[in-house]
Amino acid sequence: MTEADFLSATRASYDTFADAYAATFQDELAAKPIDRAVLTSFAELVRDGDRGPLADVGCGTGRVTKYLHELGADVFGIDLSPGMLAVARRHCPDLRFEEGSMLGLDLPDGGLGGLLAWYSTIHVPDEELPRVFAEFFRVLAPGGHLLLGFQAGDGVKHRTEAFGHDIDLAFRRRQPDWVAGLLVEAGLTMTARTVREIDEESDFPELTPQAFLLARRPIVSGACEDGSTD
Predict the structure, then answer these.
(1) How does strand 140-151 pair with strand 210-216?
(2) How far apart are CA 117 and CA 58, in angstroms?
(3) CA 2 to CA 18: how far, in whole Å?
(4) pTM of the predicted model as reported, rounded to 2 decimal places
């Protein structure tokens, strides 16, 4: 699948079921205290660093963007799907949402204090991940933080139907150590790794473990965090 095919299929699929997705998952975070704890810790790191705003890349309907905003983060959302963004703007009219692709973010170099990719890299082909992570490195300020959330495991699950609609989406499960290795190759430093085991008894049952990786763009060598030299 070419880059254009992958982007087109992902955009069209989420446009198709945006409203149904929002109705189904709007209360998911309330049922997942560990996920909330991970996001809360991330929001505190970014908020306290004062290096720039936080971008929720692949924000979808904006439910996590809203949660981070309520925690005090200066956050905005970016998503590939106009349909998902329309829902986000309707549900969160006070927040900023922009259309864009993580393969080429329309953001300045070093302008972000934090970047969240919460289950938004799972559709990206493996061969494109280094490009995505290089882009994340580019837009993060020195000392800025990155948080990834994704399904841990191996293999690709291709879905052609969701919420009663025809779609074309590939869901990629990945080993956390492999993903962490790609982040390091992109120039980032790993900060923390968490794997939440399978939870089949919650209101939102899962068939795979869930991985959360926290990384950081290193501060420029020879300079202190306030910009002064040693």
Answers:
(1) antiparallel
(2) 6
(3) 24
(4) 0.93
